[in-house]
Amino acid sequence: MYQIYSKRISLLVFFVAITNCSSPVVNDDHNEEFIEKPDQESWDVRITITNAGIKRADIKADYLEQYSDKMFISLKDNVQIDFFDAKERHMSKLIADKAEINERTTFLQAINNITVMSDSGITLFTDTLSWDNLLEKIFTNDSVMITTEASDTLYGIGFESDVNLERWKILKPRGVTSR
């Protein structure tokens, strides 16, 4: 009897030793329980932003994530934003890879591969761009390139403008002009 009991203890010790010597299991999902998940997801979305009941922007995207507690929306893939003036006339169109919206303030930030084409003929290229719905301004601290209908190309760092790109300024311009 003692021999059977000692074999069981030996087996138990063997299994405990193997378990303690094995490498830990690594979760490639980076511990999913700590990754914040959206409260809502939508595909092929369209959002209209208003200011005092007047349409100021129509936003389209292939994918949306909404985080209710933060009042935050993330838009991804094929983000297109059409801007309108106080009489709801189209002013310009923004295209970006991604955009984020603070739902409390309707403050929007576009991210990556941004192009803004105004109806007045000016085109802006940059990597980040913010839109303040209340101030009706777009701006960035990143590098910018602007092209005009007159075939001018301007470069600089930092930019501020109305959404129609009619009253704009480059904060730190650089480059050469033939004028």
Keywords for this entry:
mainly beta, lipopolysaccharide transport protein A fold, 179 residues
Strand order across the biggest sheet?
1-2-3-4-5-6-7-8-9
Poorly predicted parts: 4-26
What profile does the largest beta sheet have?
Answer: 9 strands, antiparallel
> What is the correct CATH architecture?
Sandwich
Overall description:
- By secondary structure, the chain is mainly beta.
- It has one helix at residues 2-21; strands spanning 40-51, 54-67, 72-84, 90-102, 107-118, 123-132, 137-147, 153-162, 168-174.
- The protein has one domain: lipopolysaccharide transport protein A fold (Sandwich).
- The chain is built from one helix and nine strands, in the order H-E-E-E-E-E-E-E-E-E.
- It has a nine-stranded antiparallel β-sheet, with no helix packed on it.
- The radius of gyration is 27 Å and the shape is globular.
- Residues 4-26 have low confidence and may be disordered.
Question: In short, what is this structure?
Answer:
It contains one helix and nine strands. The chain has one helix spanning 2-21; strands at 40-51, 54-67, 72-84, 90-102, 107-118, 123-132, 137-147, 153-162, 168-174.
